[in-house]
Amino acid sequence: MAVEEIRGVGAGIMAARSGGLILFALCAAVQDFRKRSILLWLFWVFSAFGLGLMAAELFFGSQEADLRSLLLRGSAFLPGLLLLPAARFSGGAIGMGDALYLLTAAFYLQAGEIMGVFLGGLLLSGGAALLILAAGSLSGKDRGREPLPFAVFLFPAVILTLYLKYGPG
After folding, report:
1. Domain, as residue range, for 153
2. Which of 140, 104, 132, 86 is nearest to 31 (CA)?
3. With CB atoms 3.0 to 4.6 Å apart as the test, which of 23, 58, 149, 161 could cross-link to 32 if both were Cys?
4. Is the pTM of this model over 0.85?
5. What does 4-60 look like in DSSP terms, one character per residue?
6. Cα-based distances in Å from 27 to 13, 34, 76
7. What is the tens place of the pLDDT at every residue in 128-169?
């Protein structure tokens, strides 16, 4: 395969990865906002697509697939894997969908980017929770037990992460 073809394939994989992640994040945010849950098939479909992109990158990408790069790629799954038992034993404070979201996003992003998305979502949801509590205390209503759909706050964090990664400059 010529070098120009490899670069073209790499750019196509990069565009498919960004587009797939944005579509997944948007679908998950809409479902989480409307139903307070994310359908399991969404995780399966976008995980399979991301796995296909990872395989295509290994076979057609311009980077060599050595042990170090595979370990770095695999470390992107750690935040989601660590969140699984936390979701299981938190009594509903952390949703299983949040852990599955991070696992699915790991097919598209690197470990540091996953942590950026997670922390960005935490900051945004924490800010929204403070606003809801403040509004509730001003109106005299107790809003401390209202659940927040976390995927809604992960969506802007995904967009910001991709902008910082591929944006102008």
Report:
1. 3-63+71-166
2. 104
3. 149
4. no
5. HHHHHHHHHHHHHHHHHHHHHHHHHHHHHHHHSS--HHHHHHHHHHHHHHHHHHHHH
6. 21, 11, 21
7. 888 888 877 676 676 666 678 888 999 999 999 999 988 776
